[in-house]
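Subject: two folds for Thursday's group meeting

Dear M.,

Sorry for the delay on this. The cluster queue was jammed most of the week, so I only got both jobs back this morning. I'm pasting them in the order they finished. Each block is the input sequence followed by the predicted structure tokens. Could you check whether the formatting survives your parser before we put anything on slides? The first protein is the one we discussed after the seminar.
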Amino acid sequence: TKLESIQVIGEAHTEEALRYAASLTEHAGSILKDIFAGAILTDDQTLQTFENYVYDEGKGIGGWLDNKRVLLGTRDMMIEHSIEGIPATAKVREMVSEGQDVLYLSISGSVAALFIVRLEASKSIRHWLKELERENMLLLLRSNDAMLSQRRISKLFGIREESVKIISARYEEDYNEETKAVQTGSPSMLCAGRLAGFIQTVIGAKRIRTAANLGMILQAVT
């Protein structure tokens, strides 16, 4: 992900917009948290903790900071929350080129900034996701980034939409329970933690299971 440009609107300041965006994306665990944190302009700026954090599925994220309601998401999210100062659609289109996305930041009921971001797919990840697809296995994702729709992910990595499933917000607690850290465990598989290595491990396990089942069938027939 790359933050390609920032369009500040109204009386907002770039530093303030970046601080709110960085704090909110860090709190939410967004894939954008690193690019916003890295764009903070001064060393003395620190990330703050949001209150009453919410995830509006497919639209964006929000919460309260410094007694101000902050939203970061799509144009639809801004309209749904009756945010003021939304730029005309034609004007926004002039700012965006192919492969870019627009995120709207609102503070206290008014649009404060537009962030133009670009998503790029790793060649290695593209390769291994296609291998996963060839094995008829699904990619199950947890995401609270509005721009990461099922269609966008499939197009970005060159796989079918049916090969991607995004966990609904109502299963967030179940996801956290299944993926929480534990002190000890008995893992059936181990990998270095990278997605490519994890996919190779899963594919290898499936192939071993298929071969074992085939062996049992041949043995029974014999």
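Second protein, same layout:
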Amino acid sequence: MTETGQTALQGRRVLELAGPRGEYCGKLFADMGADLIKIEPPGGGATRDLPPFAGGQAGKDRSLSFIYLNSGKRAVTLDLERAEDRRLLAGLVVGSDLVIETFEPGYLDSLGLGYQQLSRIRPSIVLTSISGFGRNGPYKNFKSNDLVASALGGAMYVTGRAEDPPVRLAATQADVMASTYAASASMIALYHASLSGRGQ
């Protein structure tokens, strides 16, 4: 925040359609002052059910992980399987700069909400996809999670002793790193869009 109270991303709107893999990316944008709207499925996102819980009592608004990862965000519940809710999302895209998503490859395209469709709604929109194995290529449909990413990314190779069983990193460090790099790449794409009027 500057001396005048202005934040780095004041005036930017970000839509987050992300599960645990990408919530930290959205948090970084919210922390820098972007208007972050989290789109949650009916029943809430998966992180809401992660312990530990505030006061030791489970509840959708009591997960400490959820509270940390989603502070500074506004939340909207949309069922993207419903045409009406897809239209509501498209309406939000009109006034947004960035969409962060962590769906399986091809899911948003199947709903008519892939990058090509979103860029017709708003040519300057940036779409950031965080996935285990990318959006194309021979492994795109392979399942992944934080543990798989830690192993294939090499972090588990240098953790622990060679003669012992594999040791995972604490918490979800692979997801945090993926989100951090996604935020950096998104900032570069947003800068490009501000100069050219074209997203990517």
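Two things I noticed about the second structure. The longest helix spans residues 173-196. The mean pLDDT is 93.

Cheers,
T.
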